Amino acid sequence: MKTYIINLEYSARRRSNILREAERHGLDHEIVTAVDGRKFSSEDLELLPLADSLRNNDYYSPTIIAAALSHAKVYERMLESDVDVALVLEDDAVPGEDFGGILAGIRSTINQGEIVVCHYMCFGPLRLSRLGSRRVAPGYDLYYPVNLSDVTSGAAYVITRAAAASLLATVFPIRAEADAWELFQKEGGFETIRFVYPMPVTVRGDKSTIAAESQTGLRKWLTSAVDAYRVPPFYQMLRIARLKSISLRSRVELVADNPIGFAGNRTYEEREYQEDRETGGAEARNLSADAIRE
Questions:
Q1: Which of 97, 146, 211, 230 could cross-link with 127 by S-S, CB 3.0 to 4.6 Å?
Q2: How far apart are CA 216 and CA 219, in angstroms?
Q3: pTM, entire model
Q4: Residues of the chain with pLDDT > 90: what percent?
């Protein structure tokens, strides 16, 4: 599976880390140079394809806008090639053991127009439905979400060519973060979205450029210096604090509720009913599902 790695040109340490991970897992990788929001002038921002709601909005900093543009750049790169399914990684991602086997399982299961998220965060527990879950590797399954409210992170996900094309048409003009999965789902940016659980990718816990820009004054200078020079023990303390925050936002609940994420907001039962009509009924579908699990 082709892997697109998003990395800022000046972030040599992050590039070295993610390339080491790519080699460790045997990923066919390609670096996509990220858009650097720190270099935007006021004139640049005026010329960017931004929604009116983003202009003069203090929350959407140049680095948030640049991150969205960087992911759109990946979709463009994918559509310029003959790649049909790709893994997208941000440069702080850390794939776990047997990630190659998990990717192979995703590759054999992914639907046309689908995104499969391998790293995710949520302000409350992410509720995933047991309905329609599929095994992709020993100990790892794909689940549809019950809702996408407050679900974030674009650190690691698998995307099909069809989803890349529809997302590219949806994200412009830029009006949200790169990982606004709920908005993109509602606006038809992809047909379906599923999550791998347990989460097969973590992150390093280094300071992001978006976080750096949201800080001001002495705090920004101190935390940036600590990260740049890895000043002990403060670097380790900051990293532990970030990882703890990420862990608290990575809780999952498996439930029996109907999932969402289908085109037109169809429920799981509605989608299966349509598929039954097209393929010959639930019996054929259940036999096929059993064969896949075996």
A1: 146
A2: 6
A3: 0.81
A4: 62
